[in-house]
Structure formats: structure tokens, C-alpha cells
Amino acid sequence: MYIDTHAHLYYDDLKNQLGDVVKRAEAAGVTQIICVGTDLPSSKTSISIAEKYNAVFATVGVHPHDAKDTPDDYLHQLRDLASHSKVVAMGEMGLDYFRDFSPRNVQKEVFLSQLALARELDLPAVIHNRDADEDILKILEEVRYERSVLHCFSSDTEMAGRAVSLGCFLSFTGNVT
């Protein structure tokens, strides 16, 4: 059994062929696909996609790139979205100091509040980290929530050890940039 733990099925190159994508995944032995939200609209879309396919589940969250654009009531909206039966995690949340599309203080605030909400709702957290190891660890230590995965992990072995000691899982991909 294989589970695709991080898919963005709403991307333009996939959204018009979702049925085929899900069928190809099933033919390859993938039994579940988790469609990851990166802002409020994509979180809602992820849920809509999950409602259409038994094998698809959703996450809801705000990616650090989009942190600057969150409305004041984003946590209330995320809480409501997270109550859907097909939502299995919070995220994609975290910090991205490589691109810095949102100010770092805003990224930290939005990440911290989402991680606290994930803990409150007892949902795993899907965490994005790009060139922000120390601040990620500080926030993880502050919230003390062990149901987290650092997706697309690309840091060093020291960071891996520290994250694992805090109860995090690590996932890897083929990114080179």
C-alpha cells in the first residue's frame, strides 16, 4: 500500500484530468492521495476534490508564501474547514526564508497560530521549511506538538536529529532548487 502524502491536485496541469490522475495512481498501487491546501481557496478546493474521490483526502492551511494575504478570521475559517470528515491534517504551513514572499514576522505568526490550532484539533501538521531551520525548531519547541511532518526535507543531519527528537517525521522528494 502506498499513500501520496503531498499532492496539489488543483494545479492547472492536473485539475482537468483528475479522474485519470486518480486512476493512474490506483493502477500504480497508490491507495490514498492527500491533496494539500496552501491558502483558504486551495484548502476549500482540496476538500471539494476529496469529496469526489474515495481515495483522496485533504489538508487545510496557509503556506508561508501566502501568509501575508490571510484575512483576520483565517483561523476561524481553517477551524471550520478542518471539521470536514475528509480533512486529515493541517497545512501546508511553515516558514520559507529562501523566497521570503511574506515578511518573516508574519510567516512566524501564521505558522505558530496554525500549529497551535493543529494541536488543539489533534490533527497532524504538514510543515514547509526552506532555509528557516532555527525558527522552525523554536516554534516546534514552543508549541510542543509531536504530530508533525517536515515535508520535502532538505536540511542537514543535525536538523534532522533535532526535529526527530521533537517527534517530527521527515519526508523527502527530488527537489534540487
UniProtKB/TrEMBL annotation:
One of its GO terms (cellular component) is cytosol. CDD domains: TatD_DNAse. GO terms for molecular function: hydrolase activity, acting on ester bonds. SUPFAM superfamilies: Metallo-dependent hydrolases. This is Hydrolase TatD. It comes from marine metagenome.
